[in-house]
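Record 1 of the preview.
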Amino acid sequence: MGDHDTWYTLLPGWHDFEHMFEEGLRRDWRALMFQDTNFTLIHVMAALIAAALILVAALRYRASIQDETKGVVPSRRFTLAAMIDGFVGAVYKLAVDVMGDKDAKKYLPLVGTLGLFIFCCNIQGLIPGLLPATDTLKTNLALSVMVFVIYNVAGVYRNGMHYLAHFLGPKIGGFPWLAPLFLVVEIASHFARPVSLALRLMGNILADHKVVIAISSLIALLLPVPFLLLGVMVAIVQTLIFTLLTIIYIGMAIEHAEEH
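->
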């Protein structure tokens, strides 16, 4: 299989269906990092698989907390529900450390689901015949732009004009004299956040996926095992980085602004 060949490409009529799909996504312009990212219907299928896995895991977890123990006593077995409980619990602890218990509970559905989705996408790159949805810039930009919009809206909702006042810098003598400079710097830094989130995730997942493919094509027995283990670490670490930065951005936006 090539870099973008999967089990889907073996389905009858897949290539014709994929060609029809890509006609609506094709773009002719190229600028800076927005080059050809090989976004195909396969990436959409990978995202749908990740969503299906999360749905199944959520249903299993819901069933696990509706037994006779009501989820108070954790399972002794390492089940899917136990894995989800540990994953979401870890995200919740990160959120509590950054934004406090109250806001952590409020934003846990967002950051927890985001972390699960990214991890389920990342890990598909280590399964023969599948492709990670996060090895293309378009998927990652969609996620990071969503984070960008949410944390800015949350900041304005929580602090109102005080949040926007941070873009103007400190007041000197009751007037933000450095506002033109600070405004440019702050806007540039905020717009750089989604771009850096997207590029970081894409670069690491794409590189890891290509390494595993290259090693497996040389010797398919035993040799790829260390690289697969390394790939699991990359998938976990990149999920952690994206989720943690999302929590930090939201936490910084909703913290009580000082008077300017």
